[in-house]
Amino acid sequence: MDVSPVGLARALIPQIPAIVTTVVLAFLRLFNRKQNDQWPQDFFTAIIVAVMRPIMSTPASLAKSQAQWLTDFGIWGPMWISKTTIPRAESHLSDGSSVVGVQEAVFRAIGHLGHEELHGLDFDVADVEVEWTGHRAGVSPIALRPNLSEKEQYNKMMQETSGECPTILYLHGGAFCLMDPATHRFTCAPLAKSCGGRCLSVRFRLSPQYTFPSALLDAFVAYLYLLSPPPGSFHQPVSSSRIVISGDSSGAGLGSALLLLLLTLRELNITHIRFHGKDVDITGTTGSASETATPPVAGLAIISPYVDVSRSLPSVYRNAGWDIIAPPPKEGPPCPNFPADAIWPTKPPRVETYCEARFVTHPLISTIAAQRSHWKGAPPVYISVGWELLQDEAEVLARRLYDAGATVIFDGYKGMPHCFQMMRWNWQGRQSMQNWGDFCRNVVSGHVKKQHVARWTDKHGAVTEVGLQELASGLGDSDVYERLQKKKERRVKLEINMRRL
Fold it and tell me: Residues in domain Alpha/beta hydrolase fold-3 (predicted)?
């Protein structure tokens, strides 16, 4: 995706006839009440989809696209931003006890959840840059950032939050290879305002330069940083009961993988992680013999979740007419045909940017591959999704979490495209943002009630309720696993052939 002026022109000019046709038809529907009422998308959404789809679906150099999306255009408007870096955690090999190092914990979880050979997995702990984000009240949308130190910026932010506020561990979207906390400031700041809390937005390592599980490792480090800040950190320790993991698109997938990692470590009886000289308790207990373990976080709040990297389910084609993302090709390599540059193709070549083909259906990459039992002990979960390519995987994940005993709030919007919650051009986007923030605020105070139905809302505000067990009703668990396996086998064969050339 090339967002330079030249790149935008190349993507849009050939599509001008189609865009004009869409605008005309959308305009004519405004004068035909019956037709307009029946059409799932409102006027502006239809036009945005027509314009955004060619931009999003035109392959561009990954190196060039990363450089564009990593450009920081500054901080302004009603937000506090405080930048800091989490120092690299030390290596620690366990001696058979329940205390392990960060790297070993992730490695053990990968092995426990998957049957793939772990040879070739090359990852290490690194420094992790993060941004604290909060709402800044009483300023204009173009107000400049005050000339203060990062510590003072943090203190100013905390003056506008309460001690009992939610702390949102935010993981940005971008297909694991694009975007940055800087691109998501105008999502995190409104979310912080909506819930009355603060966000810690993580600059995790991007693919294809860093493959799985580097991003997951960085997210795990950020979680430990909240629980046990090293000396010199701005914040005080945050109780796990005040932390909400959140993210959009691939960041939502990474967030669900982080939750699955934490649940798996408990299953493996790993109770403490060595982190900057301390053995950090990840059980959520105080050590009392009579105390029941709490979930590792207060909740998981994800929007338009990308939780099937293999893109196996029918909605990746069925919903193409409503989404800003183009469906994957049915033949040949499943990834976009990115032009060759310094970082792609990799050496040796891969089919997927994020991982080797043999790992594409690993539960810590595609969390819909996790079995129901893997989600035992999960906290309440909020999922918001539209009529997008990722609808089926969002529904499968919601159903499986519900079947595992979790409280699931499913907030669906008919006719809406990928990540509409972040753009908020219509009332559906604004409503979803409010619901997202409400969940984050309520879940840390224990006020999220058990639900048994999912809600699908149309553009008129009419709500259709569907039993959570009935979501993705045509996709039983065995069917989902079979589809995943077929897509994995296809990628493995393609990757073997690529490496023979």
Answer: 168-421
